[in-house]
Please model this.
Amino acid sequence: MTTHNSDSIVKTDPSTEIDWTDDGPGETVLLGTKEKLRLACGAELGPFRVSYQTYGTLNADKSNVILVCHALTGDQFAAETHPITGRPGWWARLIGPGKSLDTDRYFILCTNVLGGCMGTTGPMDIDPKSGKPFGLDFPVITIADMVRAQKMLIDELGIEKLFCVTGGSMGAMQVLEWAALYPERVYAAAHIAGTARHTAQNIGFHEVGRQAIVADPDWCEGEYYKHERRPAAGLAVARMAAHITYMSEAALHRKFGRNLNDREALAYGFDADFSVESYLRHQGSTFVDRFDANSYLYITRAMDYFDIAAEHGDGILANVFKNTPVRFGVISFSSDWLFPTSESRRLVHALNAVSASVGFVEIETDAGHDAFLLEEPEFFRSLEGFLNGAAEQLGLNAPTADQK
Amino acid sequence: MNILQAANAGIRSDQRYIADMIEPNARVLDVGCGDGKLLYHLVHEKGVDGRGIELSREGVTACFHLGLSVIQGDAEADLAEYPAASFDYVILSQTLQTIHDIKGVVDQLLRIGHRAIVSFPNFGHWQVRWRLLTRGRAPSTDTLPFGWHDTPNIRIFTILDLLDFCRDQGIGIEKMIALGSNGAEISAGGNIGTRIANLRATQGLLLISRD
Model:
């Protein structure tokens, strides 16, 4: 294992004409140069880039690392101002000095997932074979492939064992995949607003989003990069539809009701009469500025394929975690109908069935699936309690003053 | 660390007797573990591998803050999910009287654990009897403070009732402790008869098994 040195990792790959240093803001490492990443679909990928951000200080024995896994449309900018949107990081409420993911104590690592579009190799990047963007030539990836890429990164950084892996939604899928694939490399797993399998309803919503993208003439069979076009309308519709699933009916009603959008009366047309329409249109149009449509296809597909029991347990969820040494913390939200509490409870029952160490709490909120990204003090306190308990059990040392 | 110190400071007297029944490093499931004080005590003072189930969200959140492996759940629904003989002790503390399916839950306790420790309020205490007799209304006492209409205690039974139940079910009683209103064991001076204990105890504590 090599020691991390950010100056030496990013280099030009001599085998192609690609400038690997052209990777946007943040840290980037080139992986799979010697040994390629073998994907679930059978294809091999390498070399490939993984972009990541870190917060806090690594302690002397590299034992205070929390890997934060982002959701479908998230990225590695978890705690700082986003370089494109200028908005606060998606978990800025949770990551920082004295916060639940306390950067005075823990070293937070957040990577952009494989197939993403914020630096880590994905469909918009150049295929070394053709010298052109991958487009649909990018291999179909799975959650396990994302996790294998992350594992190559922590090998590269010389981290033996993660103190904790955590994330919400698709991030929680990666948490389970880490526990299943590398139980000896993870001490604690905090699974938030997640599921052990993508349900028919989840897949159905994703298919609507994908069809909106491919129906956009600017998608050009996935080769819009070379035509210098972008299926912005299709991607925006995908985002609008998905955004409804992230909120509860009660939250939508509380926020918008039947309020009209900048008008006194119905306009008898198809403009955005209602505030909720205007809000969703805004969500759709800002999303396309920061997200690649093909990445959206690939990452939603990875989520659809996720069924950890089928992958590792012959269809029996409990089998996946037999004799697991990992401490699990499972948190769900009462009004989340996308990844409902019943799915978390299934996971908890399976973990109980193999006598795994598991804590589980359902947070009362009307915020829906998005609650894991919002101001939910009970959630923050529960996650903090889980981490503190695990740290105490492990006898984890905070970094000393001279390490900081 | 204030919350941890607070958790360590006070466990109830019946919980102290429960803790004394459990040997160090045992595997323990606390069903209805409340705010987790007993479980925390067992984990930190006795090195047990402790798990809990708690119905109330406030209780589970408090347990999370103590770093305990506690799940939000219901004894009547969730015990079936645990494998047989996965714990040395299963604790059911001040919960039996709130349960609908007593036989089902007791069977689960003894399926999951080698032994079960059950603590419960004793409706045979003389004050309860006296108040019912003299006032002719559902009694309310310090240990049973609820009104008849809002009490969570749906099963009204005495120490003798539970002893009968265990005998009928073929459940062995390894130990019985009767606690007085001051929280201390009232049979400390010697083996008093169970009828006297049933009159004087506000709480009963049984260590049961099928072994």
User: Anything to note?
Assistant: Chain B has nine helices and seven strands. The domain at 2-209 of chain B is CATH 3.40.50.150 (Rossmann fold).
